Amino acid sequence: MAIAQAMCTSFKQELLEGVHNFKLSGGDTFKLALYAEGGGGKSSTTATLGATTTAFTTTGEVASSGSYATGGGSLTRIDPTTSGTTAFTDFADLSFTTATITAMGALIYNSTDSNKAVCVLDFTSNKTSTSGTFTIQFPTADASNAIIRIA
Amino acid sequence: MFNVGVSQTGKVNVMTSDQGGLTNEQIADLAVDKIVSISDQAPPHVRQQANQFREHLKKVLYHYLLLARKEERGTIIQALRSSGQMETAEYIRRL
């Protein structure tokens, strides 16, 4: 599969190295970029994203449209917290408006620190907006569903 | 060897629209998904009750979303009328 949902392996190492800061106050800037399969990206490119992805790439990224600009949109951080023995963090939902986009997945990356990859999101099917809104809703921020969890 | 657990990535929900913004129903769905999550492992009677609550919540949210949009449109129409843009105000009123 060209886009496979995963927490990037490099990100796990970088967590132990103290590279990423998800705190609301003073944390790094994280962005979400959208990607296409089947030559649907810019210049007919196809994304290959998964656990081995180490940084943001323009290959397979969807073209700018509406409020979506190359590189994707900035995410609003929500302070990391814990529930039981699980630590997790969350982001506010992200919307691109008046956009014509077909995307199969996304990459969350740290634009403060050399665009290092965090995780790959697989939408499982093509999602399309035509001169409309493209919204990414993050899962419930709890120990079982949150976008990034360490149990 | 110590096993400190696993790191996981949650599943996002993607909602899209054509020729305009999200509908009231889509926004109500997004809100309900954020408020209510039902475990696959929950007993059937708990799941049934949770689903009923979810449907009720969706109807309430839908109603107030409609109201919010209508009221905001009313405020915009009044602002346009006050500035003499009657034609634009009428166009928005008919949306």
Q: Can you tell me about this structure?
A:
The complex is a heterodimer of chains A (151) and B (95). Chain A is mainly β and 151 residues long. Chain A is 5% helix and 43% strand. Chain A is built from one helix and eight strands. In chain A, the strands form two sheets. A five-stranded antiparallel β-sheet of chain A has the order 1-7-6-2-3. A three-stranded antiparallel β-sheet of chain A has the order 4-5-8, with no helix packed on it. The mean pLDDT of chain A is 95. By secondary structure, chain B is mainly α. Chain B contains three helices and three strands. Chain B has helices at 24-35, 44-82, 86-93; strands at 7-9, 13-16, 18-20. In chain B, α1 crosses α2 and α2 runs antiparallel to α3. The termini of chain B are far apart. Classes of the chains: A mainly beta (151), B mainly alpha (95). The interface between A and B is medium-sized, with 38 and 23 residues. β7 of chain A pairs antiparallel with β2 (13-16) of chain B, so a sheet runs across the interface.
Feature tags:
heterodimer, A: 151 residues, mainly beta, 5-stranded antiparallel β-sheet, 3-stranded antiparallel β-sheet, 1 helix, B: 95 residues, mainly alpha, 62% helix
What's the total number of strands of chain B?
3
Average pLDDT level of chain A: 95
Question: What is the number of helices of chain A?
Answer: 1
- List SSEs of chain B in N-to-C order: EEEHHH
Strand count, sense and closure of the main sheet of chain A?
5 strands, antiparallel
Instruction: Label the overall shape of chain B.
Output: elongated
Bin the strand percentage of chain A.
Answer: 35-45%
Q: What characteristic shape of chain A results from the CA principal axes?
A: globular
Enumerate the strands of the largest sheet of chain A in spatial order, edge to edge or round the barrel: 1-7-6-2-3
